[in-house]
Write a structure and sequence with these properties.
The complex is a heterodimer of chains A (about 400) and B (about 260). Chain A has about 400 residues and is of the alpha/beta class. Helices cover about 45% and strands about 15% of the residues of chain A. A 6-stranded mixed sheet of chain A has the order 3-4-14-9-10-13, sandwiched between helices. Chain A has a 4-stranded antiparallel sheet with strand order 1-2-12-11. A 4-stranded parallel sheet of chain A has the order 7-6-5-8, with helices on both faces. Chain A is globular, with a radius of gyration of 19 Å. With about 260 residues, chain B is α/β, with parallel strands linked by helices. In chain B, about 45% of the residues lie in helices and about 15% in strands. Chain B has a 9-stranded parallel sheet. In chain B, helix 6 packs parallel to helix 7 (about 135-145). The longest helix of chain B has 17 residues, at about 245-260. Chain B starts with 6 loop residues before the first helix and ends with a helix. The chains are: A alpha/beta (about 400), B alpha/beta (about 260). The interface between A and B is large, with 39 and 42 residues.
């Protein structure tokens, strides 16, 4: 038991965005709601993560990979033309420039190194849009591990390119055929695989969700986004911080990463959810996929299918720390419609020459809609991924107009 | 510490005390129009207690057979309330346990759901995604309502964990027979015998093994060590063929006779 470890290291758990308590809770959210078979695996993972994170050699190895392989630090970009159009100052954190095209690689390199350190030989992952699947397949290829990625059948058809990418990288992509055949069902299949192969397999979860220690561990691996952005914006803003920090939220990993760098400042933190998948927006707590959080569900507790133009945000739940940040009022969560997202997608391409991932276009949609409220402010947005993967889908969407 | 023995556990103990092996079949609630008749047929065929599955949208512990049963039941409009309503006025003759996932209880509210079960005449409850550390609010409500919460014990548990699970479990202790989700396998996994042996060494409560126990032969084999078995997917697969309650009863009868012969 490491309860004593948890206690001795949880000195900062009262702090906003500190460590969760010994049960993996952020306020009333989080926990470890998994089949009994997985409880020891979660405990082992927690112990392994604590030990690795406290080991300078592990940290050095990860930092070297992030720099020499993934291309960190990612720059920030001041958006002159977009700022002019919106009437306030916009700065982007460029996670789209990472190797594999999104922030997902930060977490995956951390977890894959950890898996290797734990003696696991096989990575399991779920993916929605395919970005996390591609990142996991990439890390598996780099570290010489076997890799299986579960992906909803619906998502496979809307993200063919990423499926092919994963295959090129040596991963096996298995369709999730149950339920809504999207991200939540891919998570179910990944958990079933993990239950059966827990001894040699490592579940490389792609967002800041799931049973303890995942929400905390995934956030920790993404804190690099916030740490870099805090320094970079301080340099740009003469030591100041942006008035607003915003990011899209599905499970919420890119948002939690950038929020962590500004939680102790006066910056307003704004997460943007798709209207059809606004778990925080609906404020109904529930328990699925290992943790208690806000969850889209019907009146008896059946989980609802999220509906979003973006496969990466097509998830009915949200990471428990976001539920907590909303609960205590440290962050607020807004939602946008698919139509607004399509506008946001084009807006960045047209004004800045950057094609954003559809996920990020949610934050852009909110920024565009709320331009009056934001007038005169300085805003930092996490551009968590590039839009190459979405171009074919958008060609369809815009062509049909 | 002596704990009071509830009605569910008492029924299983009485089978064991009589020298017999315990048989607890699982059926999916709301699957087909005749599922209540199936319940009667299963009881008549010699079940000592019956687990009734309340379908959940995301059953991570279940394999393809129970997933399909779940989906069909949900598609026909089943809700937790419709299943409990159907059970409320039935005298099945053996104790019933509900098996569902925690969000169903959490959404209703722990206290209300526990009371709903008790009012529907249900004496046991299994929530496979509610491990020991998370049981608090639910078991408090269930204990107060007189509903026995059956905990699972998996092959992955370290030795020190098993006595704690057995201590908190009511009704019986559910040994998970293998690493994996529910479903019929061609052979009994060696882990089934292991978990039965490890549990029997630390508890006097009835120890049943389920998950991967799909044939009468496998049931007999594991019951050499355990006090009995839970049989799920094999029964539900029979329900899915739509050959009616009698066919399901006949299958349960096969398990009963095999266990009685030993």
């Amino acid at each position: 038991m490491t309860l004593t470890d948890a206690n001795s290291e949880s000195a900062n758990s009262d702090q906003i965005m500190g460590e969760p308590d010994e049960f993996g809770r952020f306020g009333q959210f989080g926990g470890r709601f998994v089949p009994e078979t997985l409880v020891p695996a979660c405990q082992e993972l927690e112990d392994a993560f604590r030990s690795a994170w406290g080991d300078t050699e592990f940290r050095r190895e990860l930092s070297a990979l992030l720099a020499d392989y993934a291309g960190r630090p990612s720059p920030i970009t001041e958006c002159h033309r977009l700022s002019e159009e919106l009437g306030y100052r916009v700065i982007l954190k460029r996670e789209d420039l990472n190797h594999t095209g999104s922030h997902k690689i930060n977490n995956v390199l951390g977890q894959a190194l950890l898996a290797k350190r734990m003696g696991k030989t096989r990575l399991i992952a779920e993916t929605g849009a395919g970005q996390h699947g591609v990142a996991t397949a990439t890390a598996a290829a780099l570290l010489g591990m076997e890799c299986r990625v579960y992906m909803g059948e619906v998502d496979i058809s809307r993200q063919e390119l990423n499926v092919f990418r994963m295959n090129l990288l040596g991963a096996e992509v298995v369709p999730a055929l149950s339920g809504s055949r999207t991200l939540k069902d891919a998570v179910n299949e990944a958990m079933r695989d993990w239950v059966a192969k827990v001894e040699d397999s490592y579940y490389c979860l792609g967002s800041a969700m799931g049973p303890h220690p995942y929400p905390w561990m995934v956030r920790t691996f993404h804190e690099v986004i916030g740490i870099e952005a805090r320094e970079q914006t301080a340099r740009l803003l003469d030591g100041g911080v942006p008035d607003v920090v915003t990011a899209c939220v599905g499970g919420g990993s890119n948002a939690i990463g950038i929020f962590s760098g500004f939680a102790d400042t006066d910056a307003e933190l704004v997460g943007v959810e798709p209207a059809g998948g606004a778990a925080v927006g609906r404020k109904v707590p529930g328990v699925v996929h290992g943790s208690k959080s806000y969850l889209m569900q019907d009146e008896v507790g059946q989980v609802l299918e999220a509906e979003s133009i973006s496969a990466g945000l097509d998830y009915p739940g949200v990471g428990p720390e976001h539920a907590h940040l909303a609960d205590i009022g440290r962050a607020r969560y807004e939602s946008v419609t698919d139509a607004e997202v399509i506008e946001g997608f084009q807006l960045l391409a047209r004004t800045e020459g950057i094609i954003p991932a559809l996920e990020c276009a949610h934050a852009l949609a909110w920024m565009s809609r709320e331009r009056e409220e934001l007038a005169g402010k300085t805003l930092l947005m996490n551009l968590s991924g590039r839009g190459d993967k979405d171009v074919a889908q958008m060609m369809d969407v815009l062509g049909r107009k | 510490m002596e704990q009071p023995v509830g009605a569910f556990e008492a029924a299983l103990r009485s089978r064991r005390d009589g020298g017999g092996k315990i048989l607890v079949p699982y059926i999916t609630g709301g699957l087909g129009d005749d599922w209540i008749e199936t319940l009667h047929a299963v009881a008549a065929a010699g079940a000592d207690a019956i687990e009734v599955g309340v379908p959940f949208s995301d059953p991570v512990m279940d394999g393809p057979v129970i997933q399909e049963a779940n989906d069909r039941s949900l598609a026909s409009g089943s809700t937790p309330q419709s299943i409990l309503n159907a059970l409320r006025n039935e005298d099945i003759g053996v104790p019933l346990a509900i098996m569902t996932y925690y969000n169903i209880a959490f959404r209703a509210g722990d206290v209300r759901f526990a009371q709903d079960l008790a009012e529907a005449g249900i004496s046991g409850c299994i929530l496979p995604d509610l491990p020991l550390e998370e049981t608090g609010p639910w078991t408090e409500a269930a204990d107060a309502a007189g509903v026995e919460t059956i905990l699972l014990a998996a092959p992955t548990a370290p030795d020190e964990r098993l006595p704690r699970i057995c201590e908190r479990s009511r009704g019986f202790v559910y040994g998970v027979g293998l690493l994996g989700v529910t479903g019929v396998r061609s052979e009994l996994a060696s882990s089934a015998m292991d978990i039965a042996r490890r549990l029997k060494a630390v508890t006097d409560k009835p120890v049943l093994v389920g998950v991967g126990v799909g044939t009468p032969e496998q049931a007999v084999e594991v019951s050499q060590v355990s006090d009995g078995v839970v049989v799920g997917s094999a029964i539900v697969r029979q329900m899915l063929t739509s050959e009616g309650p009698e066919a399901v009863g006949a299958l349960v009868q096969e398990f009963r006779s095999a266990l009685d012969k030993g």
